[in-house]
Amino acid sequence: MKGYFLLICFSLASYLNGEIIETKNFKEITHHIHPETLVILDIDDTLLVPVQTLGTDAWFLSRLDHHFQLKKDHFLALDQALAEWEAIRHITNVKIVEEGTEEIINDMQKENIVIMGLTTQGLALATRTVVQLKSLSIDLSKTAPSDQDSYFINGQNGVLYRQGILFTSGTSKGEALIKLLDMINYHPKDVVFINDKKNNLQDVEKSVELRNMHFIGLRYSYSDQRVANFNQEIAEIQWTHSTFDHLLSDEEASVLLNRD
Ligand SMILES: [Mg+2]
Predict the structure, then answer these.
(1) How far is the CA of 213 from the centre of ligand 1 (A)?
(2) Yes or no: is domain 19-48+96-225 CATH 3.40.50.1000?
(3) How close is the Cα of 101 to the center of ligand 1, in Å?
(4) Per-residue b or e along 53-64, where b marks 16 or more CB atoms closer than 10 Å to that residue's CB
């Protein structure tokens, strides 16, 4: 009886406090939703990734480090690395992170589950990212919590909600999400958020629990191996030898690398 009581207490505590679960497969999300759940999807390294190393999140971090070594100023380095990353993101093709993700999203949308995207991408990429997701048969406007575009200030930056995706421009995902939900007067009891970065999950967890919403975070590890295998030399060759109408593939860069 005592054990049963403790189990109930533990379950209740975990319900109130939410939890972050590690998962390698996107399908895990379907085990944590019900008709009233708000499902939130990260974009980069969760739904899509550039077809080559150039333009990936891992490449962005390497550019950030490169510029910091040169400038010794975090803000100048961040500005420069972001400008380069956005330039490549505008012209790159993308691929789905995990095969079948688009079908899982489409199936949830057919069940009228409320789904939205949440990314730290800046406003300049908003339209491009919507188009890139559509090239992968993902349309996050279908069952989004609002069909109206919204622009508002979060922290130091303007953020944009467009076509079912909230672009937070490097500001807190949790704070931007709560502002949006307040603006559209939508307050779900349960939130499920899938993201490859744990700090983003913790940020949103903190914000939604302050509003007494139950939170489940899925720390999505599918991209971990690819990120760990980031090849600086391949990225350098792609950065140096690509043109506006042809970004070198990893295979093409590898041929050049081995020739030099
Ligand atoms: Mg991500």
Answers:
(1) 23
(2) yes
(3) 15
(4) bbbbbbbbebbb
